[in-house]
Amino acid sequence: MEYVEKRVAQEAAKGAEATNSLFTPLNLMLLSLFLYTVYSFVKPQAPAALPKEEPAVVFKTFTPRTLLPFNGENNMPVYLAVRGRVFDVTRGRNFYGPGGPYANFAGRDASRGLACGSFDEEMLTKDLGGPLDTLADLGRDELEALQGWEERFSEKYLVVGKLVAEEKE
Ligand code: HEM
After folding, report:
1. Considering the domain boundaries, does residue 49 fall inside one?
2. Which of 54, 113, 116, 156 has the lowest tally of Cβ within 10 angstroms?
3. Atom from ligand 1 closest to the CA of residue 152
4. At 108, phi and psi to the nearest 5?
């Protein structure tokens, strides 16, 4: 009888050992991984945020005079014109904004200056009420350089309008 009791006690101890061995560090890690995976499937998803709508671009007609205030001063955007197309270069405010290296082009027809690689005052249309610069006297290299700039601007900036000469009464 004593033998039977001893065996029963032995078997009970074995069972406890088996239960203990379930809680090994590895099993606990696997369990937490499993619970985490389940949780990540079940947890409520944050509603997908809609992308912010870009402000609508209103295509406008500018003359050299009405383009002038768009030079980045007084919190104005920065525009410049190249061969009749007005680009919003506000993103490039560091280049064209007040104090920037190319601020001379802000609010102006920059075609001649870009073509000739010059910041000289005479590159800019002097008579804001007069005809636009036809660039008729420029050579091939200059026109090619200008086209290069235009391509760069088209990739980087939005066209917000066209530049025309002021109408004469
Ligand atoms: C000493 C000569 C010059 C140096 C060291 C210089 C330097 C630079 C640098 C570092 C950039 C920035 C490029 C980028 O991050 O995309 C740049 C852009 C530019 N440069 Fe110059 N530059 C010089 C002459 C000129 C000249 C002569 C012109 C035209 C008259 C010019 C017009 C521009 C324009 C329009 C941009 C593009 C800005 C934009 O992406 O909106 N640069 N220049």
Report:
1. no
2. 54
3. 40
4. -130, 170
